[in-house]
Specification:
single chain, mainly alpha, 83% helix
């Protein structure tokens, strides 16, 4: 452990830079996943006929091994290539399932009596969605975002295999060098980052549930 601490202290600037790269990949991927996943979750809550297809497609993406997904995306024009762009796309695709599923569950789980009361007050479908269903379902939606973010933090370590940077760079470098200290220099900060993200989003989720 002392050797690991010495390594982290000596290379603290690079470790910090790699951590920022890692958080940047996850943050950008989550922005895209949320921007796509929440509307899709609302869509499948409204259109039962599309539910099987949308959730089925997200399930299929989730079952593809991460390295295989990176490999599939690399030759795709505009989206692929070696580097962070492919990693962001892959991470966003992996994050879709929990976001779509929880958005659907959050919207569908609103008490029907509350929905009927809102309609009785003359609310339009859009007003019902933004003023009733999303606020009441936000705790469940945030739980999906929390799961997706933690998954993305772990998956982002593998993105170093295609030159996307991040803390996974240390893991792959350590494997090539057969050096446990270098491997742990990437693995431990990535694990700590996942725990911090889970704790922060978990606290926000519990606060929302108490307020509902």
């Amino acid at each position: 452990m002392s050797r690991l601490l010495d390594f982290l202290i000596r290379n603290r600037n690079e470790v910090f830079a790699r951590s920022l790269e890692h958080m940047g990949l996850v943050g950008l991927a989550m922005l895209f996943a949320i921007a796509l996943g929440i509307p899709l979750g609302i869509l499948v809550a409204r259109q039962a006929a599309l539910r099987r297809w949308v959730l089925g497609a997200a399930n299929i993406i989730q079952t593809v091994p991460s390295l295989a997904l990176f490999g599939f995306l690399i030759p795709v024009p505009l989206l692929g290539g070696i580097g962070s762009r492919t990693a962001v796309v892959a991470l966003a695709l992996y994050a879709l399932l929990p976001i779509i599923r929880n958005t659907y569950a959050g919207i569908s789980g609103v008490d029907p009596a509350v929905v009927e009361a809102a309609r009785g007050m003359g609310m339009t479908g859009r007003q019902l969605l933004w003023q009733v269903e999303i606020p009441l379902g936000m705790g469940v939606i945030l739980a999906g975002i929390r799961v997706a973010t933690v998954i993305s933090v772990g998956m982002a370590t593998i993105a170093a295999a295609i030159g996307a940077g991040g803390l996974g760079t240390y893991i792959f470098r350590g494997l090539a060098m057969v050096n446990n200290q270098v491997i742990l220099a990437g693995a431990i900060p990535a694990a700590l980052l996942a725990l911090v993200v889970d704790w922060v989003l978990g606290g926000a989720e519990r606060r929302l549930r108490r307020e509902q």
